Each structure stands twice: as C-alpha cells, then as structure tokens.
C-alpha cells in the first residue's frame, strides 16, 4: 500500500515493524465539549484506514487516548485549562465533564459507523506511566526543572522539527495574542512535561510526583499511552493536521529521547474540515455536531459518505448544500441496491476484478473517492445481482456506509407502506359493505365487455365503481383499482 507520510513528506510503501501486524495510535478527543464534525472527519478517515488494514489481511492493534487532563491552549502555563473551563461552564466536576463528553464522543462515533479502538485509555489512568517517563527524561538529561515545572529541553535534539517547514519566525507569528512566553524555558520550543506551578489556583486534578503535587503536560499522555499499549515500535500514528506541530513533534521528541531509537516511522494526518469561517474548531464555538445534523433530518452516514467522497489530504469545505447533494447521491445508491435480487450464489471469480479495483484505489494513498467509483462500477457491471450484493457487502467492511442495511430498511419501509395502503383499502371496502372479490368480479365483467367491444357496459362498470370511490387503472398488464 502506498500511503503519504508526513515524516519525509512523500508517498511511500507502508511497512510494519512486525510482518502482518499493524500497531496504530490515534490521538483521541479532548473531552471538554462535543466533538464537531471536523474532528469526526479525522476519526472517519482513520476508521477507513484501520478497516482497510484489516481488509488487506493485517492484524491491527489500535490504541487511542482520551484527553481528560492537561490540555491547555498552549504549552506555556497560560491560556485556559479547557477541562476546567468546561466544568465551570456546566457547573459540573471535571471528571463528570470528562465522562459525559467521552460517552457523547463514542455515541457520535457509533452513529458514523466508526469502530471503537481496541484500547481506549483516559490520560488520568496513566499518571504513574507519565511520571516514569518524565523521570527517565530527567535522568537522561533531556529534561530540566525550572520554576517548579519539568521541561523538555529541545536543544538536546539534532533535529527537533521532524516534519520540516516549521520556520521559527513563522512560529513566532503563529503565537496567539493571549499566550505570553513562559520565562522558565531555556529554548522557545521547550515544553512542559509536568506542572507543579500552575496559574490555575483551582486546578482540579493534581497528583503526587517526585517534583511535587501537579499534573502532566499536554503531550506526554500520547507518548506514554502509546508505548504502554503498543510497545516501543509503533507502525503508524494518526491525527488531524493541526496535531503535527507542536503536539506530534513533541511526542516524537520525548518518545525517541526516552526510548533511544526511532519510535514511529509513519505519520498519517487528515486535513481540516472548513466552514465559511475557516477551520472548524471547538474553541471558536458555533461548530456543527452529529446531533445537530440529526436534528436537521440528516442521517449521520450521509456525512460519512460526504467525507469519503474527498481525499483525506485535501481540505474539505462543508456546506449544507454540499451535504444535500451527497444525501441525494447516497439515496440513489441505496435505491439501486434495493432493486437487486438477492437470490442465488455470488460468482467469486467474477467478483475478483472488482475487488482488485477497490484495493487499487485504497492502495493509492487511501483514495476513498476512487473506492466509491469502484462501488458504482459494481452496480453498472455485467455480473449477477447476487455477485453485486456480495461485493457491496465486501467493500462496506471498509467503507461502512451501511448500504445493504439502508437498502433493506428501504424495502421494509416500502413493504410497510404497501401493507398500510392495502389495509386502508380493506377498511374502506368494509365501510361500503363490499368485498375485494366483488370489485375483482366487476373488473372481470368490464374486461369481458371490452373484449366483446361492448363499450356501454364497460363504461357503466367504470361509472358504478367511481360512484363508490373506486378508480380503475388500466395498464399493459390489465386493470387494477385504487381508492379515489
Ligand atoms: P481535539 O478533540 O481538539 O483534540 O481534536 C480531535 C482530533 O480532531 C485531532 O486529531 C485534531 O487534529 C482533529 N481536528 C480538529 N479540528 C479539525 C478539523 N476542523 N477538521 C479535521 N480534523 C480536526
Ligand atoms: Zn496525541
């Protein structure tokens, strides 16, 4: 499989440390607010990647953290602690906030057919691991204590800017107005591993540590949680592109300093979902959530389809107009699938070239829109309906668009509507004191009259039924009747 790697900035063959096994880490959500559909774009594309690894035969171990502590708006001990801000906003404890939004995240993920990672680890579960890692970094000389906090010393690394393009001057420009530089730092990019001195007097969660009562910095959790569950050699690390710097850059700095060797050779980043104001973000507010889409009558899976139609390495602009177009395309696809006849056995030989096309699309830097074209080509293909259904179910192991289920639901809905209509007819006939058999006899009488060219009788039958509120419909298959 060819996959773009932010480390090196090229498309390259994806390789694993151990043959046949993928150890995959994804930065999990900060749980101080609902995930917005931008966050979920990232999780949808990571879900496709994970499922494609499995489809391609890999044994996958996927680990995800839950950021329930330590996520400040910057590395300096300034800005605000987002968890604490959430707790204040909602008059709840920090842990209540974390639990509530963790549950909300997984409920949204489920609606989008995003599989749960094999390991889900809240940061607050791993304080001893963080402390051990920070202590080792101090012992190895990669960290220092200043003003009561422990900092990572970026000057100890030959190459801190592993992803390139991180021009110091640009970073200076990128520093936000509300963030003042932390005077304890020896170098501008040094970052906090452990805080004991916080500007937040009422910092809710603190733990004992060799450096005093405090709490972990922003980045340490992902390094420690990944190493705890996926070991010293990670195969691929994923996140939204905004995580590349400083979060992932700092993760790499501290993990490799701690381990003494390369930690993760492949970095997968999803570009942002944009709205009219630019990048959708939690801190800006006014963002869209899955619940909001549902309230507006959208099936969350239409949003998944929306994401899959474009490449993960391109920014994606969201608008309701674009989503409406996707809904139409999704409904058309489902309607075509609903028409397929499920009888018979699939022809696995005939299915193979279609599967090859599907794999070719995803092997090409996870080109999901081409994979959807491959799906359309199945529907157009000169193969049996059973083979088509087999292929759609097969592709949906990766795409997870719920296509077969949606088609079945459509058929069920149509059958129920038909049954309701027939029941309504029966009720009507009973009310009129007539039966279906009587109406059928009348239709037969009219058919005979027409055959005999006895138009007067044929017309009088039509009028008699019409007077009862029953309309005759003629078609090439003969006559049927409906209520007026
Ligand atoms: P957060 O909960 O803020 O830590 O974000 C969770 C994930 O969503 C991270 O991988 C972010 O990089 C990613 N993310 C944040 N904003 C966006 C966006 N507008 N579009 C796509 N991904 C995003
Ligand atoms: Zn992370």
Can you count the beta strands? 16
User: Would you tell me the structural class of the helices and strands?
Assistant: alpha/beta
CATH class of the largest domain: Alpha Beta
Low-confidence stretches: 169-179
CATH superfamily of the largest domain: HUPs
By DSSP (H or I, 4+ residues per run), the number of helices equals: 16
N- and C-termini, Cα separation? 61 Å
Helical content (DSSP H or I, runs of 4+): 40-55%
Bound molecules: adenosine monophosphate, zinc ion
As a whole number of angstroms, the C-alpha radius of gyration is: 30 Å
CATH topology of the largest domain: Rossmann fold
Order of strands across the biggest sheet?
Answer: 5-4-3-10-11
Overall mean confidence score, pLDDT:
92
Number of domains: 3
CATH architecture of the largest domain: 3-Layer(aba) Sandwich
Rough outline? elongated
The main β sheet shows up as: 5 strands, parallel
**Beta-strand content bin:** 5-15%
How would you describe this protein?
There is one protein chain. This protein is an alpha/beta fold and 484 residues long. The chain has three domains: 283 residues, Rossmann fold (3-Layer(aba) Sandwich), CATH 3.40.50; 109 residues, Four Helix Bundle (Hemerythrin (Met), subunit A) (Up-down Bundle); 50 residues, no CATH class. Helices cover 48% and strands 14% of the residues. It is built from 16 helices and 16 strands. The chain has a five-stranded parallel beta sheet with strand order 5-4-3-10-11, sandwiched between helices. Helix 12 packs antiparallel against helix 13 and helix 15 runs antiparallel to helix 16. It is elongated and about 105 Å long. About 2% of the residues have low confidence. The protein binds adenosine monophosphate and zinc ion. The site of zinc ion (ZN) has 3 residues, from loops. Adenosine monophosphate binds next to helix 1 and strand 10.
């Amino acid at each position: 499989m060819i996959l773009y790697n932010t480390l090196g900035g090229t498309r390259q063959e994806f390789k694993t440390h151990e043959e046949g096994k993928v150890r995959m880490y994804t930065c999990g959500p900060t749980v101080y607010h609902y995930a917005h559909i931008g966050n979920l774009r990232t999780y949808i594309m990571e879900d496709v990647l994970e499922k494609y690894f499995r489809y391609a035969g890999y044994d996958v171990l996927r680990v995800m953290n839950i950021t329930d502590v330590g996520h400040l708006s910057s590395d300096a001990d300034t800005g605000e602690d987002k968890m604490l801000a959430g707790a204040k906003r909602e008059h709840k404890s920090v842990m209540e906030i974390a639990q509530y939004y963790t549950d909300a995240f997984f409920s949204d993920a489920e609606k989008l057919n995003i599989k749960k990672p094999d390991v889900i680890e809240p940061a607050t579960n791993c304080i001893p691991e963080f402390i051990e890692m920070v202590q080792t970094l101090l012992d190895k000389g990669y960290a220092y204590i200043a003003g009561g906090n422990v900092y990572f010393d970026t000057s100890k690394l030959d190459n801190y800017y592993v992803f390139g393009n991180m021009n110091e001057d640009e970073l200076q420009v990128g520093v936000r107005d509300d963030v003042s530089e932390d005077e304890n730092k020896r170098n501008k990019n040094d970052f906090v591993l452990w805080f004991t001195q916080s500007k937040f007097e009422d910092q809710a969660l603190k733990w004992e540590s060799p450096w005093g009562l405090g709490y972990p910095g922003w980045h340490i959790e992902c390094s420690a949680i990944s190493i705890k569950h996926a070991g010293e050699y990670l195969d691929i690390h994923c996140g939204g592109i905004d995580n590349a710097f400083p979060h992932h850059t700092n993760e790499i700095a501290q993990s490799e300093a701690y381990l003494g060797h390369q930690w993760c050779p492949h970095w997968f980043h999803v570009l942002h979902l944009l709205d009219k104001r630019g990048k959708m973000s939690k801190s800006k507010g006014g963002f869209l959530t899955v619940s909001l889409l549902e309230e507006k009558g959208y099936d969350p899976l239409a949003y998944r389809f929306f994401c899959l139609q474009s490449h993960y390495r391109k920014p994606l602009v969201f608008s309701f107009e674009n989503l409406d177009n996707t809904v139409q395309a999704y409904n058309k696809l489902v309607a075509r699938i609903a028409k397929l006849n499920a009888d018979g056995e699939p022809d696995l030989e005939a299915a193979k070239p279609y599967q090859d096309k599907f794999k070719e699309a995803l092997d090409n830097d996870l080109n999901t829109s081409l994979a959807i074209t491959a799906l359309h080509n199945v529907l157009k293909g000169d193969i049996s309906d059973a083979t088509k259904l087999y292929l759609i179910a097969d592709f949906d192991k990766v795409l997870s668009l719920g296509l077969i289920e949606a088609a079945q639901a459509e058929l069920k809905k149509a059958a129920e509507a038909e049954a309701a209509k027939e029941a309504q007819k029966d009720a009507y006939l009973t009310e009129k004191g007539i039966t279906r058999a009587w109406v059928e006899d009348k239709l037969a009488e009219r058919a005979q009259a027409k055959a005999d060219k006895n138009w007067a009788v044929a017309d009088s039958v039509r009028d008699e039924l019409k007077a009862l509120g029953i309309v005759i419909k003629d078609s090439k298959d003969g006559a049927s009747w409906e209520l007026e």
